[in-house]
Amino acid sequence: MLNRATIDRIVAAALDEDAPWGDLTSEYLIPENARARADLVAREAGVLSGGDVFAAAFRLTDPAIDVQLVVEDGEWFEPGAVLAVVTGPARGVLTAERIGLNFLQRMSGVATLTGRYVAEVAHTHARITDTRKTTPGLRAFERKAVRDGGGRNHRHSLSDAVMAKDNHLAVLARRAEPEAWGATITAALQAAKDRLPHTTHLEVEVDRLDQIEPVLAAGIGTIMLDNFTLDELRAGVAQVAGRATVEASGGVSLETVRAIAETGVDVISVGALTHSAPALDLGLDVRIDAP
After folding, report:
1. Cys-Cys crosslink for 105: which of 66, 212, 279, 287, Cβ 3.0 to 4.6 Å?
2. Model-level pTM?
3. Which of 116, 139, 165, 234 is catalytic?
């Protein structure tokens, strides 16, 4: 979960990157005792995410700045809506403005795109999840945004679960004869499962229908059907027959996700939620009160 310590660490690093020796423009142009009021205004419709992160940019710049959120994380809003009001010393408001907006626009963009995917699969069995295709250093923020958009999180890191993908299976079976591939993979997965703590989840990716039975024979918890056609997904779901959670991955878009969900899969993982979400158009309208 996203906590204050994580928020402060990431936001502080961004502020330091943006103003390593201070904000020269504000310091030389804006009177020291000038105050400002800024309205955070939506230029387009979307889902808010990152209110606490936005507020942290101002708090860490100058504790005298007050941020009042009008819209909560996870709420949809329309163009023209005032999402937050910022008041305080003008220099600090202007210094923190860009970093606060950068994070909020990014997170709200992820939340909004996620919300559209979730809406597309409404009234089906499938749930939408993210992937590890996140911006380096910002995974905690982007995962929070996915949740705000109504999606679910996949494993947070390589340390959270065992997930054997095609390259792992290729290494395991590199010396096996083609006819012994299945037995080799089953044995390797069973050996790994025997060594794992009972609380650790095991997922395996397959890219062909004939790989499903050898993987299921090892008693894995989730099987990922990667880049399967719709007919192959339906066949895969029927073949698994409830023996494992079925995840679909690859080739997922807003145009295809509904049809994928209707094949009966349990989970649809979508890398685009984080690697391709456009920043939402939000603006900070600032008014300076002269001393």
Report:
1. 279
2. 0.94
3. 165
